[in-house]
């Protein structure tokens, strides 16, 4: 058996794949957080609950309406994104001119309410969600076995992350979004509906979380605590990449997922804390994060 640094090659690449899958979820979720904070200046602690809602909507569509995975990838983000739009209009829009702490406390409270409602209705045990038949099975590679669905998760997350970055950084719509947060009065003078733009931006960030939830449903069990288990790590990813940095969130999410996977091979005891150790070290050297801009 081929060994790399004293570790069987198949075990090493298997953990790298798991790390890359985790990194895919970190990247999509931190991207949504970065969009909402970078463009709206709201620390959205409800993001984990919205990720969980995406998985639950996919499960409900399958079990109550017979609507499968592929349609759920479209419908669940739309449904949860619409919920986010309503939440933004009724509650969050009132906090834009206040300190970040108010948005954090509001969204943290909303997250607890949402998780409590789902926990009361469905309990804490995981609900299974089957892998779509088109993505069942896997590929026998020379160095490892690659499940088709795991490969799909990585590819889909990469495509969504890069497409989102291109839209925000390289298109006229993205320019309007950035301008609306920096000088809303001027942008509104040009006939742009700034409140609607901000509402749709929040809804899109929420939809990204729900999309990640649908991707995660066949990988992890669908349960009310799945968002609470990942959101703290995702916030650490955002801080390391730089609060509000779109590209930083994407790169940092995938990179930290791989580092976490390697840590599980060489030092398993540190795998649950390595991201937070990296966060502390990065903040000591560069408080704005790796890709963040100092004010």
Automatic annotation (TrEMBL):
Transmembrane segments: 12-35, 68-87, 99-118, 149-168, 189-218, 230-259, 266-285
Record key words, sorted: Amino-acid transport, Cell membrane, Membrane, Transmembrane, Transmembrane helix, Transport
Recorded topology in the membrane: Multi-pass membrane protein
Subcellular location: Cell membrane
InterPro entries per UniProt: ABC_transp_permease, BCAA_transport_permease
Family membership noted in the UniProt record: Belongs to the binding-protein-dependent transport system permease family. LivHM subfamily.
Official protein name in the record: High-affinity branched-chain amino acid transport system permease protein LivH
Organism expressing this protein natively: Methylobacterium isbiliense
Taxonomic path: Bacteria, Pseudomonadati, Pseudomonadota, Alphaproteobacteria, Hyphomicrobiales
Designated gene of the protein: livH_2
């Amino acid at each position: 058996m081929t060994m790399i640094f004293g570790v069987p090659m198949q075990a090493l690449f298997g953990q790298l794949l798991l790390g890359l899958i985790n990194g895919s979820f970190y990247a999509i979720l931190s991207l949504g957080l970065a969009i909402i904070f970078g463009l709206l200046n709201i620390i959205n602690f409800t993001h984990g609950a919205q990720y969980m809602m995406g998985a639950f909507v996919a499960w409900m569509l399958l079990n109550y309406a017979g609507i499968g995975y592929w349609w759920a990838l479209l419908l669940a983000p739309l449904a949860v994104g619409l919920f986010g739009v309503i939440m933004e209009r009724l509650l969050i829009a009132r906090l834009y001119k206040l300190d970040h702490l108010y948005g954090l406390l509001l969204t943290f409270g909303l997250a607890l309410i949402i998780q409590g409602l789902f926990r009361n209705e469905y309990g804490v045990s995981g609900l299974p969600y089957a892998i779509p038949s088109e993505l069942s099975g896997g590929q026998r590679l020379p160095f490892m076995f690659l499940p088709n669905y795991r490969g799909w998760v990585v590819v889909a997350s990469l495509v969504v992350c890069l497409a989102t970055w291109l839209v925000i950084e390289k298109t006229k719509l993205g320019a309007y979004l950035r301008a609306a947060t920096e000088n809303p009065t001027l942008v509104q003078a040009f006939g742009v509906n700034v409140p609607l733009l901000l509402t749709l931006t929040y809804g899109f960030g929420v939809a990204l979380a729900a999309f990640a939830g649908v991707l995660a449903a066949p990988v992890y069990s669908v349960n009310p605590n799945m968002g609470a288990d990942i959101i703290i790590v995702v916030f650490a990813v955002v801080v390391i990449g730089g609060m509000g940095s779109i590209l930083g969130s994407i790169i940092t999410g995938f990179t930290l997922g791989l580092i976490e996977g390697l840590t599980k091979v060489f030092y398993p005891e540190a795998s649950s804390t390595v991201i937070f150790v990296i966060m502390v070290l990065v903040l000591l050297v560069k408080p704005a994060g790796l890709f963040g801009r100092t004010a």
